[in-house]
Amino acid sequence: MRSVPGRRPDPAVGSLPAPEPVAECLLIQVAAKEPFEVLRLADRPGSGVVFTGAGAIEAIQATRRHGWKRPLLADRRRYTGPARVRGTVGFAPSWLAGQRDAGVSPVLTDSGYVADGDVTALRAILGQAAEAGPDVTAVLPLHERWLHEGRATLIAEVIAHDVPVALVLERADDPLATAQAMAGLTDLLRSASSVALLGAGIGGLAALAFGAQWAAVGVRASLRSYRPADCEPGSPRRRRRWRPAPQEIVAAPVLSFSPIDAVVSACAASGANVGWACRCSSCQGRTPEWLASAAALDADAHTVDVLLRHAERVRRHTPGPAREQAWRRQCRQALGRHDELGLAALGWQPSGVLMACAAFSSGHAPKAEDQIRARGRRRVPA
After folding, report:
1. Strand-pair partners of 169
2. Averaged over 346-358, what is the pLDDT?
3. Peptide bond into 106 cis (omega under 30)
4. Which one in 155, 165, 218, 244 has a CA-CA gap of 20 to 30 Å to 207?
């Protein structure tokens, strides 16, 4: 095990048993400074935590000293913000070595951004990862068109370099909210040996259903979307009008993220319909009104429990067609409840991810616009 130059490995961490395997886990992605109480929400089989930012390795060491056994990963996220680095920039040896010293597996690269058509950056990341060792997964922060027009090149390069990859998909909303994007992802999943997904929303569940090695869903809205540079807080375009995003939760009946106030208002407008009742460990059959005055940790507990319960339902089925069909049934059920609750009349549009997955088939992926016209609605973010 290599040590980090200029920093001694923590012997208390190095002597601990290795964390549980990450395969098929739905991980919760958090900031490196997230309170430990939030991390406990993911302390269950089939889950774990991805720490985000420059302090992620230190956060992993501290968490492991608390006796944490679930998978722990580190995403440096150098690919975000107005000052994002290009994918041609070399990995920091201390970043890779620090993860090894902390007992992290797989080791995630501190990659830069791969713009639309930037094959040079794509090859630079994959080539460096191949040379870094078999425990390394190449983080690929991609412009969304890599799953559309660029998918053939992406698949060919991933296969040629033969390294595990973890995608981060750039888009202002959920990048998997179109049938075309879902088709691109599933093509990659079926062609490459190991593909995972970072910084996802409901699309993380979809990725697991269609064969991802693992997926991570952001506990905060900022970690569920990888926005284009000119939409990032601090960019010239956003500097004057940026406001902190309100806390969001998963609206359990329709399986989509939305601000708490919007969920509570929709529930009230539909007459507190029994269809809003949530059976997660926090709600225990209650409708979501109570979350309006609940502590942030209680709202997070609701969201994490709903997500992990859906992940458990996905994993009950054998990987392949049976699992994919089961997930599509979950999508259709959530879309059906959207109609039953009359949410379209309230201006609440259905999840683009669920619509894309419900419509998707291995032989043909209808255009998202066709499906939306069939339902008489415009496409909106998931």
Report:
1. 142
2. 92
3. yes
4. 244
**More confident of the two residues 330 and 381:** 330
* Residue 238 pLDDT level (bands cut at 50, 70, 90): very low
Q: Which helix (H) or strand (E) holds 46?
A: none
A 10 A CB-CB count for 86 gives 16
Q: With H, G, I as helix, E, B as strand and everything else as coil, classify residue 250.
A: strand
pLDDT of residue 240: 53
pLDDT of residue 226: 80
Contact 153, 177 (CB under 8 A): no
In the three-class reduction of DSSP (H, G, I as helix; E, B as strand; rest coil), residue 137 is classed as strand
Q: How far apart are CA 48 and CA 378, in angstroms?
A: 36
**Confidence check: pLDDT of 5 > 50:** no
Q: Domains of the chain by range and CATH?
A: 11-231 (3.20.20), 248-375 (no CATH)
Picking from 183, 193, 210, the residue whose alpha carbon sits closest to that of residue 323 is: 210
Of 326, 364, 333, 192, nearest to 253 by C-alpha is 333
Q: Which residues contact 57 (CB under 8 A, 6 or more apart)?
A: 51, 74, 95, 98, 99, 102, 104
Q: Number of C-alpha atoms within 13 angstroms, CB side, residue 219? A: 30
Helices (H), 25-108: 36-39, 56-65, 93-101
- Look at the alpha carbons of 78, 79, 85, 91 in this order and tell me if their dihedral is positive or negative: positive
For residue 98, pLDDT over 90 is answered with: yes
Angle between helices 151-161 and 119-132 (to 10 degrees): 20
pLDDT at 40 over 60: yes
What does the alpha-carbon distance between residue 20 and residue 292 come to, in Å, rounded to a whole number?
A: 36
